[in-house]
Prior knowledge:
Number of helices: 8
Strand content: under 5%
Order of helices and strands: HHHHHHHH
Radius of gyration: 19 Å
Distance between the termini: 11 Å
Largest sheet: none
Structural class: mainly alpha
Helix content: 55-70%
Number of strands: 0
Shape: elongated
Amino acid sequence: MTSPRTLSWWPDALAAGALVWLTAALATGLLLDLDVAVADWVFAHQPPVVYWTARTFNYLGQGLTVVTPIAAILTFFLVRRTRSVRAMLPLIVTFVLTYVTIGPIKLVFDRAAPRFTGPDRAELFNPAAIGDLGMSYPSGHMGNVMTWYAIIALLTAALLGRRLHPWEWVTIRVAPVVIVFWTTVYLGFHWVTDSVAGLLLGLVLARVLQRIPWERLPLPAFLHRWDRPAGLNADRPGHESAEPVI
């Protein structure tokens, strides 16, 4: 299995390039008609049973209310088991990484969500959609689901003390992505291209996290008494990572 230090960079470059192209296309008006057509269709096809089912499953992509608490609970049990401060690093680093990337990028592009009724409904850099109204691009749901479930998988594997089985990996890493993408678009929380952009950004962030050698990161001297292995990476030659790579 590929270690975090030897992950190929080409998927990162491809995802980043696709995100840049998508953003440029939207800024020039390309794909806006597609976004509007999809949004108008879903708003016309939302029977209550389907709507509330989608609304429930969409919570899988909620950051501070769902995925971050799940990661925090797993972190608590891993810290309790290992008595290692390193068990806390994935939670802390992921929170900081998502906080300084997803939110600020949303503020830059000032795009309203599909339910916006003001002028220039689907455009980027919309002066009528500044502040909380202009936080649609890229989708935070998709950024969260890509990054946080990568860490949830890492913490789960560490608690189990083994690599995840394929069905476990699919359940944690793939199923939430598919569900949140579909429900976010269907509910009209984000345009289709918002969700694609969030997925691409989240993929890059998840691979950044996957490269971090958690067990070998230098720690401040005052934390050395709690510096014990946490089972987050198997970085020594001949050992395999506890989690499959993306």
